[in-house]
Automatic annotation (TrEMBL):
The keyword Cell inner membrane does not apply. Transmembrane segments: none annotated. It holds the Pfam family PNGaseA. It comes from the Eukaryota. Residues 1-23 form the signal peptide. Residues 61-386 form the Peptide N-acetyl-beta-D-glucosaminyl asparaginase amidase A N-terminal domain. The lineage of its organism: Eukaryota, Viridiplantae, Streptophyta, Embryophyta, Tracheophyta. This is Peptide N-acetyl-beta-D-glucosaminyl asparaginase amidase A N-terminal domain-containing protein. InterPro entries: PNGase_A, PNGaseA_N. Keywords: Signal.
Length: 604
C-alpha cells in the first residue's frame, strides 16, 4: 500500500470536485486533475484549440447563415437545457439546399473542467461534444458538423435544446460563451426532385431520410436528453411509432462514457480489485459493448471508439490539438430495415439500450431515420432471418498482489435480413455487424505502471436488392487502436510525477455502391502523445504535453492530409494538403504504415 499510485488514487477519491465531462459532482477519477492557475499574461493572445479533421466538402454557392443561439453557460449544472426556437431559412434566396452545416463557436477564460454537452432539435440529437479546458489568457474553438442528414427536420420549425452542465464558483471561474450558427448551402444545380420518387431509381436510399424520430428523453428535464445507463443490468427504453409507409430505417446511436467508466478500457477485473482491497477503483475489466434491442430482441451493437476528453489522461496533451472525436463524438448507424415488417403495424414499439459491464455512467440516445413511400399509404415487410448470439468473451489473467497481466478478448456478430414491399418493388435487405475486441493490460511495479494495448474492429455491411437486380450496398470497416502507458514516480518529497505515453487511432474504410456508381474512402487518423505532470494534492503544478497527429483521408472525390504537432500550447509544425496525388499518396501510405508500425499501430 506504500505505492504512490495507490496513494494518488485514494487521495483523489477523497476530494469533492465537480466532475469533468460529467454530471457527477461527488466523485473524481485518478486521471482527473486540475491545473495550478497560471498567471494571466497581459495582452497575451487567446489560444485557438482545434480537432484535426478534413474540411466539410461544400458546394460553391453562397450560404445563408443564421445565428440560432447565443448563450453564456455559467452555473448550468442540473438546470433545464437552454432552448431556442428554430425556424426554417425562409429568407434565403433558394430553398433547395445540398449541404447544411452546424457551427459551434465558444470562448472561455479562467479555470474550468471539460464538460460534456449535447445539442438536440426537437429531441433529435445533432451534436455530442466536449468543451475545451480554458486557460487564464482565454481560449476559442470552433466545431463544424455536416447536419445535412437531418434535412427533413430543418424544413419545419423545431425547438433547439442545448445541455452543458457547467459549475462556476470562486475556483472554477470559466464561463462558456457560445454561438450556434446554421449555414444553408443552396445546391449548385437544382436537385432533380422526381428522381427521388421514381420507382425505378430508388435514389432515396442515398438521400437524407424523410423523417427523423427522436429516441431520447422528453423535455422538460434538468439534464441532457440522453438516457443514463448506470450499471450492467440497467436497460433504458423508449417507445416509438413509425409511419406505416416506411421502406427503410436506420438507427443512429450517440454514446459517451463518464465517471467510473470514463476510462473503461483501463479498468481492471473485479477479482484483482477485491484481492487487493482497491474497493474505490472502478472495475469489471475493460470490455464494454452497447447493446440495442427492439421489442426485447437484440438488433444491433456498438463497440465505441475510445474518445479521450480534453481533460483526459494528461490535460496538457490536448492544448491546442484536442483528442480525436472529443469535439465531435462519432455516432454509430444500425440498419433496422430488415425488422420493418415487425413495426409497420401502426402500434407502439420499444428500443432498449444497455451496456455490457457498465459502471456509472453512460449517456446514450438515438435517432431513427426513416424513408417514406410517397406513393403509398402502406408498405409491408417481413423479417426473414435474424441471429444475434451472445458475444464470445474470454479473460486470461495472472496476477500476484498488485502486479499482473490480463488479456480480454471478445467478438460478436449480428445478422438480419428481411423484405419490404413498397412502390419501389419488393426489396430484400441483408445486414451484418461484426465486432472484435482485444485488450491486454499489464500492471507492474506494484501498479505504479499500467500498460494498456487495445484494438477494436467493427464491420458493418448492408446490401439491398430487388428480386432481379442489385440496388445498393454500403460497407464500413473501422479499426480503433489504443496504446496507453502510464507511470507514477514518487520523488519522495510529497509530489508525484505522472508520465503517460498514448497512441490513439481512428481508421475507417468505407465503400458504397449503387447502380449510379461506386465510391470508396479511407481514413487513417492517429495521435501519439507524451505527457508528464507533477502533481501535488489534486493540482498539476508543472509538466509538459506534446502530441503529434497524422491524418490521411483519401476518396475518389477528395483527399486531405495533415501532419501536425503541438507542445506546451504551441503548434510546432502543421503541414496540410488537399489534392489527390495518387503517386505521392502511395509513397505516403508506405511512410505512414512505417510510422504506424514503429508506433505499434497496425492498419487494415
Ligand atoms: C457570437 O455572435 C455575436 C453576434 O454576432 C458576436 O458579437 C460574438 O462575438 C460571438 N461570440 C462568439 C463566442 O463567437
Ligand atoms: C442498476 O441501475 C438501475 C437504474 O438506476 C437501478 O434501478 C438498479 O437497482 C441498479 N442495479 C444494481 C445491481 O445496482
Ligand atoms: C484486505 O482486507 C482484509 C480485511 O480488511 C484483510 O484481511 C486482508 O489482509 C486485506 N488484503 C490486502 C491484500 O491488503
Ligand atoms: C519534488 O521534486 C520534484 C523533482 O525534483 C520537483 O519538481 C518538485 O517541485 C518537488 N516537490 C516539492 C513539494 O518539493
Ligand atoms: C514514451 O515516449 C517517449 C518519447 O517518445 C519515449 O522516449 C519513451 O521511451 C516512451 N516510453 C514508453 C514506456 O513507451
Ligand atoms: C511530419 O512532419 C515532420 C516534421 O516536418 C516530419 O519529420 C515527418 O516526417 C512528417 N511525417 C509524414 C508522415 O509526412
Ligand atoms: C512553455 O511555454 C512557456 C511560454 O508560453 C514557457 O514560459 C515555458 O518555459 C515552456 N515550458 C517548457 C517546459 O518548455
Ligand atoms: C499491441 O497489441 C497488438 C496485437 O493486438 C500487437 O501487434 C502490438 O505489437 C502491441 N503493441 C505493443 C506496443 O505492445
Amino acid at each position: 500500500m506504500g505505492s504512490s499510485l495507490l496513494i494518488l488514487f485514494f487521495s483523489l477519491f477523497l476530494l469533492h470536485l465537480p466532475f469533468a465531462c460529467n454530471a457527477n459532482l461527488h466523485k473524481t477519477h485518478r486521471f482527473r486533475l486540475d491545473l495550478r492557475p497560471q498567471p494571466s499574461l497581459k495582452d497575451a493572445p487567446i489560444t485557438r484549440y482545434f480537432e484535426v479533421t478534413k474540411p466539410i466538402e461544400l458546394p460553391k454557392t453562397k450560404p445563408c447563415s443564421y445565428l440560432i443561439l447565443q448563450h453564456d453557460f455559467g452555473y448550468t449544472y442540473t438546470l433545464p437545457p437552454v432552448l431556442a426556437n428554430y425556424t426554417p431559412p425562409s429568407n434565403c434566396y433558394s430553398q433547395d439546399f445540398s449541404k447544411i452545416v452546424l457551427e459551434w463557436t465558444a470562448t472561455c477564460k479562467g479555470r474550468q473542467f471539460d464538460r460534456i454537452f449535447g445539442v438536440w432539435l426537437s429531441g433529435v440529437e445533432i451534436l455530442r461534444s466536449c468543451t475545451a479546458e480554458p486557460r487564464a489568457t482565454g481560449i476559442v474553438w470552433t466545431v463544424k458538423k455536416d447536419i445535412t442528414r437531418y434535412s427533413s427536420l430543418l424544413k419545419n420549425p423545431q425547438t433547439l435544446a442545448v445541455y452543458l452542465g457547467n459549475v462556476v464558483d470562486q475556483t472554477y471561474t470559466g464561463i462558456y460563451h457560445v454561438n450556434i450558427t446554421f449555414h444553408f448551402y443552396p445546391a449548385e444545380v437544382p436537385q432533380n426532385t422526381h428522381k427521388r420518387n421514381s420507382a425505378n431509381s430508388v435514389s432515396g436510399f442515398v438521400s437524407p431520410a424523410d423523417l427523423v424520430l427522436p429516441i431520447s428523453r422528453n423535455l422538460p428535464l434538468n439534464d441532457g436528453l440522453w438516457f443514463l445507463i448506470e450499471n450492467s443490468t440497467d436497460v433504458q427504453k423508449k417507445e416509438f411509432k413509425i409511419p406505416q409507409n416506411s421502406y427503410r430505417a436506420v438507427l443512429e446511436v450517440y454514446v459517451s462514457f463518464h465517471s467510473d467508466d470514463e476510462f473503461w478500457y483501463t479498468n481492471p477485473p473485479n477479482e484483482y480489485i477485491e484481492a487487493n482491497n482497491l474497493t474505490d477503483l472502478p472495475g469489471n475489466g475493460p470490455f464494454r459493448e452497447v447493446v440495442v434491442s427492439l421489442d426485447e430482441s437484440v438488433v444491433g451493437a456498438v463497440y465505441p471508439f475510445t474518445v479521450i476528453y480534453t481533460g483526459g489522461v494528461n490535460p496538457l496533451l490536448w492544448r491546442p490539438i484536442t483528442g480525436i472525436g472529443s469535439f465531435n463524438l462519432p455516432s454509430y448507424d444500425i440498419e433496422i430495415t430488415p425488422f420493418l415488417g415487425k413495426i409497420l403495424d401502426g402500434d407502439n414499439h420499444k428500443f432498449g439500450f444497455s451496456v455490457t459491464n457498465a459502471l456509472d455512467v453512460w449517456y446514450i440516445d438515438a435517432n431513427l431515420h426513416l424513408w417514406l413511400d410517397s406513393n403509398r399509404e402502406r408498405t409491408e415487410g417481413k423479417l426473414l432471418r435474424h441471429t444475434s448470439p451472445r458475444p464470445q468473451v474470454s479473460l486470461v489473467q495472472h496476477f500476484k498482489g498488485l502486479n499482473g497481466f490480463f488479456i480480454t478478448t471478445a467478438s460478436r456478430s449480428i445478422l438480419s435480413s428481411g423484405w419490404v414491399k413498397s412502390s419501389h418493388g419488393m426489396i430484400t435487405t441483408y445486414s451484418v455487424q461484426g465486432f472484435s475486441f482485444r485488450n491486454s493490460m499489464e500492471m507492474k511495479d506494484n501498479f505504479n505502471v499500467q500498460i494498456v494495448n487495445q484494438t477494436i474492429e467493427a464491420c458493418n455491411r448492408v446490401f439491398a436488392k430487388l428480386p432481379s437486380s442489385f440496388i445498393y450496398s454500403v460497407e464500413s470497416k473501422q479499426k480503433f487502436p489504443l496504446y496507453l502507458y502510464s507511470a507514477n514516480v514518487d520523488p519522495g518529497n510529497g509530489s508525484f510525477l505522472s508520465l503517460a505515453n498514448l497512441s490513439l487511432g481512428f481508421n475507417e474504410d468505407r465503400f458504397s455502391g449503387a447502380k449510379s456508381g461506386f465510391s470508396s474512402s479511407s481514413l487513417r487518423n492517429l495521435q501519439n502523445g507524451q505527457g508528464s505532470m507533477f502533481i501535488e494534492g489534486n493540482l498539476v503544478v508543472g509538466g509538459l504535453g506534446s502530441t503529434e497527429q497524422l491524418y490521411a483521408y483519401d476518396s475518389s472525390k477528395e483527399c486531405y492530409f495533415r501532419n501536425v504537432s503541438s507542445k506546451n500550447y504551441t503548434v510546432l509544425y502543421d503541414e496540410k494538403r488537399d489534392i489527390c496525388d495518387k503517386k505521392s499518396l502511395r509513397g505516403l501510405g508506405f511512410r505512414l504504415s512505417r510510422w504506424w508500425s514503429l508506433s505499434a499501430r497496425g492498419s487494415f
